[in-house]
Design brief:
Strand content: 15-25%
Structural class: alpha/beta
Helix content: 40-55%
Number of strands: 27
Bound molecules: adenosine-5'-diphosphate, magnesium ion
Length: 917
């Protein structure tokens, strides 16, 4: 969080401060929790503790303002401030900008200064923010019956809200959704805290610590009477019904609090935030945070792996930043509505079928810059002329996008540029007409009116800022044109004056010039000073020249400078008018931007499907998952790029339907490095791709829609994550067992690794039993516990698979093939040998293993019943023995002894009862 910014609230020395410092202290008092950037001439200066913090964080020199008082101070040039501020925000600080409110040239007194904006990590427009990333500001609001969550990316205007009902469960779900979004900043009511006093702080705090900036906001911002009308005003609507918020007051209040916070920090109405989407969790395939991380959907698990290992990178060939963001969001929240998914497949198919039309479309998309972020800059008034022009340049590509969409929607008509298209290509196009493309073509608002206004108002290559003028095109404003002609006729009159004065004084080297400090002057070299006329006034002395002025020149100067000032004023007014026009059309621009994102996303999926030979998945009403020739999309690409051998395709069949003999749980055994984890993840990734509307890396895939995907990795496999402990693994497993449904897909990889063999085996065993008896979801379970394969005898729907290795004389060879049946042994020693363990160690290990196996066979012979066999490993009896050993009978009362006996009995009895269905 913020550094500690101690500043005396009532500084006893204030009275003795200079007027400037008094002004500073007044501004600082209003924003005690922000670093105050105080504009002084060409610098933003920081003082006191702010200066110490900033100099340390930004590595800039700390000096002292006032020799006597030794006030610590540091500063950054105002034109470079954006970068420094972004760095502070990324570290979690808030920054208040105190600007000069009047031109220092025009006032003799101290310049008036005001805080014009407060920048916070969740509301900043960070120029370094990657195109595909979102920067969310989030708010939570709890009522007695629900938990509301709202979040806004101010840099794009993306504003959403959701709500969870029920009191305790709602809080947990809201927390999870919050963490999944990784907001840059969370706001909450000051007195109540983010999740209210009821929530257990010990579990909450470490979770919330993942959000770097947590900002308390005045309670009233979260009151219904204030927040809801404010939200209505922001959305320009009388009622929230149209946004799906009518019956979700908790979500609406959270959203209203966000509007409050943005308006107060930005000192702006943020007009581009004009719509909000309410979503319910059931609308999408739910992926919890742990699953998203384990599957490396958007971020690598290990930082040294680089970003290429993520599904997002593998699937991103989008042409626009909006498309990239939509891809990222889609992979984290895939669809669940079969019609929406099918319609996207049809759209992808149509674009996949025609290389020429697709490339035409993607070329047009390539020219479109980040419409959302340009619009946000414009509406928050931080856009210069070049940003506005960039918007126009982007808008100019929209007609071509529309034309391509039309050509994809109507294959028969063909596009004028599609001459190279083969007959067979046309025929495939005929095969399926896509609603998506025709809808896009007819509804895309190409915003030509806005592009035209911008292009006619601005000059083609405007300067960065409005300060010097030269931004507005000629012919827009008569007065501006007149004033400019004074400027240009001025140049002619200067030449005339120069010529005349040369003749009058007979000094051939006489020059009339201008500079911003001294204005217009006549320069005469030292050697000619004798000929200077009496009416010249001396202005400045240089080494070998003197500069003069005359009354005529002074008059002229006033006229030119006034014209210049006046014309800059007019340009500012015209530019503001253009800006207003764009802001008034913000909702049109945003709608177009969303449409472009969708088009880009579909074209992206089509491009990758064609490039990599992905196929169209088939949705089945039954809860099955059938994959033929499936490949792990990320590893396949990585291997291809590295020029390695090819990925070995594998099949998969799961059916959690009514047929009681069909397999719904696959137990995969086999040596380390054999490909178990890859096989598991591949299944989840293919489902996520399919429900995102993409084609998939498989020869064929048929699936019933999945409502949740869970992926857990055993603790030992995951140690590098740092916080990984057996406890974490068990907490995660508990979540699955408590929330999975028969429509879910569950992947458990090396469960139970983090504890002793027997504990781990026992837990894995009972978890599998529970999955089969109580959940019946599609599940994959990779394990090194051989003993578990015996469960297949008890549960007919549990099928054993194993990864195949070839045993060659020089050691085992991994074939990465998955086949029916359990592995016949675990090959741990063979893998160790491959890893280069000394031969003596390998030999001894084989001996030990043989002895151990001999004794185990003996056990199995005695106890063939798998459930009974497990009791030999269970830690239960050991627990009871431990309890008894620790009991000191001499100090027990008879009642205590009875109680102990009852507890021990319950330990055996209750456990047995609770596992029965
Ligand atoms: P396990 O979980 O059995 O220890 P992994 O799934 O981690 O094995 O795979 C080990 C290595 O084998 C990984 O580097 C992976 O890239 C590679 N691999 C796995 N499956 C395949 C496959 N089907 N084709 C090619 N390489 C594979
Ligand atoms: Mg593994």
């Amino acid at each position: 969080m913020f550094g500690i910014l101690t500043l005396p609230v009532s500084d006893p020395t204030t009275d003795t401060q200079t007027p400037l410092m008094r002004q500073y202290l007044a501004a600082k008092r209003q924003h005690p929790d922000a670093l105050l950037f105080f504009r002084l001439g060409d610098f933003y200066e920081l003082f006191f503790d702010d200066a110490k913090t900033a100099s340390a964080e930004l590595q800039i020199t700390l000096t002292a303002r006032d020799k006597e008082r030794q006030t610590p101070m540091c500063g950054v040039p105002y034109h470079a401030a954006e970068n420094y501020i972004a760095r502070l925000l990324r570290k979690g600080y808030r920054v208040a900008i105190c600007d000069q409110m009047e031109d220092p040239k025009l006032t003799k007194k101290i310049v008036r200064r005001e805080v014009t904006r407060v920048l916070t990590p969740g509301t900043a427009l960070d120029p370094q923010l990657a195109a595909e990333q979102s920067n969310y500001l989030a708010a939570v609001h709890l009522t007695d019956t629900a938990a509301g969550l709202a979040f806004l990316d101010l840099s794009t205007g993306d504003f959403r809200a959701t709500e969870f009902s029920g009191s305790n469960a709602a809080t947990a779900q809201a927390l999870e959704e919050l963490l999944r979004l990784c907001p840059a900043e969370l706001i909450f009511p000051t007195t109540r805290g983010p999740f209210g006093p009821k929530t257990d702080q010990a579990t909450l705090d470490p979770l919330l610590a993942q959000i770097k900036t947590r900002t308390p906001v005045d309670d009233y911002a979260f009151s219904p009477d204030y927040a809801i009308p404010l939200l209505e005003r922001q959305l320009g609507s009388q009622s929230l019904e149209g946004f799906g918020l009518a019956h979700h007051p908790a979500a609406a209040i959270a959203a209203g609090a966000i509007v409050h916070y943005v308006r107060t920090t930005q000192h702006s109405e943020a007009a581009h935030v004009e719509s909000l989407r309410f979503y319910a969790r059931a609308e999408c395939l739910h992926l919890d945070q742990v699953t998203a991380r384990n599957l490396e959907l958007t971020d690598p698990l290990f930082t040294d792996a680089g970003p290429d290992v993520t599904l997002f990178r593998t699937m991103d060939a989008c042409c626009t930043p909006m498309g990239k963001r939509m891809l990222r969001a889609t992979l984290l929240r895939p669809m669940i509505d079969p019609e929406a998914i099918e319609s996207r497949y049809a759209a992808v198919d149509a674009a996949r079928a025609s290389l020429i039309r697709r490339e035409e479309l993607r070329r047009a998309l390539h020219g479109i810059l980040d419409l959302d972020r340009l619009l946000a800059r414009i509406s928050l008034d931080s856009a210069g002329p070049r940003d506005v022009l960039a918007l126009a340049a982007s808008l100019q590509h929209l007609p071509a996008v529309q034309k391509s969409a039309a050509s994809l929607s109507d294959p028969e008509r063909g596009s004028p540029n599609a001459e190279g298209e083969s007959l067979s290509e046309r025929r495939t196009l005929n095969a399926e007409r896509s609603q998506f493309w025709s809808h896009s073509a007819t509804t895309l608002d190409t915003l030509e009116d806005l592009a035209t206004s911008i292009l006619t108002t601005l000059v083609p290559e405007p300067p960065l800022t409005l300060a010097e003028g030269g931004v507005i095109a000629p012919g827009i404003d008569a007065e501006l044109d007149d004033l400019r002609s004074i400027g240009s006729s001025g140049r002619a009159s200067i030449a005339a004056i120069e010529e005349r004065e040369r003749r009058r004084t007979n000094i051939g080297s006489l020059k009339v010039r201008f500079n911003s400090v001294f204005g217009y002057y006549i320069e005469i070299t030292k050697s000619n000073l004798a000929s200077v006329p009496a009416d010249y006034e001396r202005k400045q002395t240089l080494v070998n020249a003197e500069r003069f002025t005359t009354p005529e020149l002074k008059d002229y100067e006033t006229k030119v400078l006034t014209a210049q000032e006046r014309s800059v004023e007019i340009e500012k007014r015209l530019f503001a008018g253009l800006r207003t026009r764009l802001v008034e059309n913000a909702s049109r621009i945003r709608r177009t931007s969303t449409a472009v994102a969708q088009i880009d996303l579909v074209a992206n999926f089509a491009h990758l499907a064609a490039l990599r030979g992905y196929t169209r998945p088939r949705i089945d009403p039954a809860p099955i998952l059938e994959i033929a020739g499936g490949r792990h999309p990320v590893i396949e690409c990585l291997m291809e790029n590295a020029g390695d051998s090819r990925f070995v395709p594998n099949d998969l069949y799961l059916d959690a339907g009514d047929n009681t003999s069909s397999p719904n749980l696959l137990l995969i055994t086999g040596p380390n490095m054999g490909g178990k984890s890859t096989y598991l993840r591949q299944a989840a990734l293919l489902v996520i791709l399919a429900q995102s509307g993409s084609f998939v890396s498989a020869d064929r895939m048929t699936y019933g829609l999945v409502d949740r995907v869970y992926t857990r990795i055993g603790a030992a496999d995951n140690l590098a994550r740092g916080r990984s402990t057996f406890m974490v693994e068990m907490t995660e497993t508990a979540t699955i067992l408590n929330t999975a449904t028969p429509q879910s897909l569950i992947l458990l990889d090396e469960m139970g690794r983090g504890t002793s063999t027997f504990d781990g085996l026992a837990l894995a065993w009972s978890t599998l039993e529970y999955l089969q008896r109580h959940i019946g979801a599609r599940a994959l379970f990779a394990t090194h516990y051989h003993e578990l394969t015996l469960l297949a005898d008890e549960f007919p729907r549990l099928k054993n698979l194993h990864v195949v290795v070839r045993e060659a004389p020089q050691g085992i060879v991994f074939l990465h093939r998955i086949e029916q049946g359990a592995a016949n042994r675990s090959y741990g020693i063979d893998v160790a040998r491959l890893a280069g363990l000394p031969p003596a160690v390998i030999q001894r290990a084989r001996q030990v293993l043989k002895q151990h196996e001999r004794s185990e066979r003996h056990n199995v012979a005695v106890e063939t019943e798998p459930a009974l066999q497990l009791t030999m490993f269970t830690p239960l009896s050991q627990l009871i023995l431990d309890r008894l050993a620790q009991t000191d009978i001499d100090t027990l009362t008879p009642l205590q002894a009875l109680n102990l006996l009852e507890e021990l009995k319950a330990e055996i009895g209750d456990k047995k009862v609770s596992t029965a269905p």
